[in-house]
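Narrative of accomplishments. A recurring question from our advisory board has been how the design workflow behaves on a single, concrete structure rather than in aggregate. To address it, we present the structure tokens for one chain from the evaluation set, followed by the sequence designed for it. No filtering or post-editing was applied between the two.
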């Protein structure tokens, strides 16, 4: 059942928010021990939200466009009074005194947040295997990863535990798990969705977006959480865009750029799926143009200097003094060192060290400064591409979901999982992954549609064309 159908039934009194919640809780009870999706299920808060929706319906008030729709939240989004750990020991037991703007907007629209999902520690990873609380498994094949870093949020929807979920995307962490779990995942334009209450990884790259089973569901959730927020200094000063009303716009007359660099190194079945997607768009009236953006080859290198540098700065606040884990020491310096040594996992430590080195005296210009120049070149290259094309098309991930443990000992191989998604984050623009076909072992393949800033309506319309052809 779609998000719109669930909300319509709840508003009409044909179902109730409480019954929708109970179905969600039953699904979580059935598979969470197997898949390790939820780190914390907030039954008390969820029932409180569901009863408020049902009370509004009973009083003749409209509870909102997401009435009774269950939502899973990635555990890097603050929820007042609810444990928020970022899947790290260093935040174990921390309960925020406020909620993220996206959480407040979901509640205001009648949604029912159910709990917090597993992720790669501090969103640093591509498989949800760096979590301090164990890996999440892919509901479609529990021997494989769900992608990352928002693997728990993707798995929650793929397993039917919630109707939709929210993740964060710093280098592909919504789109890549969406592809590996057979879902729609949207990385919005930077600033379209408030980051207030999102625990920062790399502040110039992070963005919150939805996972959903359909393009329409993703559009409906994005409409609710988007729009200006005065609490976020990087928030775009404009209201949320109209998205659902444009889903039937189609692609007739649009130029779609099939990007060579967004296919290089991908498995043959992934390349085949992308080319079939281009054919579908062509039959729907789009003009397909094969293009090259050589600057995209620079994306991975630039990202793994910029993101760790920002992470090094953002994670400096975890010192054992103000909140979270505290490991005693003989003095403040020793306490700080022991806390960070025991509190952070290997991948987080690796990125902190890399980022600190890149920002250090004598190396700043050669590494971090150079990476920022490369980022500017990529933004300019995307700009030239969008002068010719309305939408760009490529693969979301190089392969279908890979086996648990297959890449944990090879960080570079893991980093390459995001090679097709990172460029959009560096540019701050919009992208969406939509399921299209299957590959090895019948597992889903995601194709990626990219557009300039504020092009979400155009991308969702194109994604709806692909969805309708399956």
């Amino acid at each position: 059942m779609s998000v719109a159908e669930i909300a319509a039934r709840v508003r009409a009194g044909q179902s109730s928010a409480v019954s929708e919640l109970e179905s969600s809780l039953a699904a979580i009870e059935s598979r969470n021990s197997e898949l390790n999706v939820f780190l914390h299920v907030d039954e008390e808060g969820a029932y409180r939200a569901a009863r408020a929706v049902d009370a509004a319906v009973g009083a003749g008030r409209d509870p909102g466009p997401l009435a009774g729709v269950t939502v899973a939240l990635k555990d890097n989004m603050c929820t007042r009074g609810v444990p928020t750990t970022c899947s790290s020991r260093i935040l174990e037991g921390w309960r925020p005194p406020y909620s993220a703007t996206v959480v407040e907007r979901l509640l205001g629209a009648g949604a029912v947040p159910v709990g917090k999902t597993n992720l790669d520690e501090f969103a640093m990873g591509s498989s949800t295997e760096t979590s301090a609380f164990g890996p999440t498994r892919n509901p479609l094949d529990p021997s494989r990863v769900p992608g990352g870093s928002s693997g728990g949020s993707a798995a929650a929807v793929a397993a039917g535990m919630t109707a939709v979920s929210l993740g964060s995307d710093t280098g592909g962490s919504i789109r890549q798990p969406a592809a590996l779990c057979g879902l729609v995942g949207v990385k919005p334009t930077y600033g379209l969705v408030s980051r207030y209450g999102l625990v920062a990884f790399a502040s110039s790259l992070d963005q919150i977006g939805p996972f959903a089973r359909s393009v329409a569901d993703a559009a409906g959730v994005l409409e609710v959480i988007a729009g200006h927020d005065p609490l976020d200094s990087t928030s775009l000063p404009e209201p949320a865009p109209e998205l659902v009303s444009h889903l039937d716009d189609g692609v007739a007359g649009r130029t779609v750029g099939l990007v060579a660099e967004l296919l290089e190194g991908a498995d043959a079945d992934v390349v085949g799926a992308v080319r079939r997607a281009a054919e579908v768009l062509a039959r729907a009236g789009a003009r397909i143009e094969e293009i090259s953006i050589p600057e995209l080859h620079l994306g991975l290198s630039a990202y793994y200097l910029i993101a760790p540098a920002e992470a090094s700065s953002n994670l400096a606040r975890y010192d054992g003094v103000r909140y979270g884990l505290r490991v005693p020491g003989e003095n403040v310096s020793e306490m700080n060192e022991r806390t960070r040594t025991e509190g952070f996992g290997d991948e987080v430590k690796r990125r902190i060290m890399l980022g600190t080195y890149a920002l250090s005296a004598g190396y700043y210009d050669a590494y971090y400064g150079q990476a920022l120049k490369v980022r500017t070149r990529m933004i300019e290259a995307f700009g030239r591409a969008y002068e010719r094309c309305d939408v760009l098309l490529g693969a979301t991930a190089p392969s279908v979901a890979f086996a648990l443990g297959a890449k944990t000992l090879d960080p570079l191989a893991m980093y390459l999982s995001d090679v097709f998604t990172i460029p959009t984050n560096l540019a701050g623009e919009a992208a969406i992954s939509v399921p299209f076909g299957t590959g090895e072992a019948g597992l889903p393949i995601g194709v990626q549609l990219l557009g300039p800033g504020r092009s979400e309506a155009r991308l969702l319309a194109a994604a709806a064309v692909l969805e309708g052809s399956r």
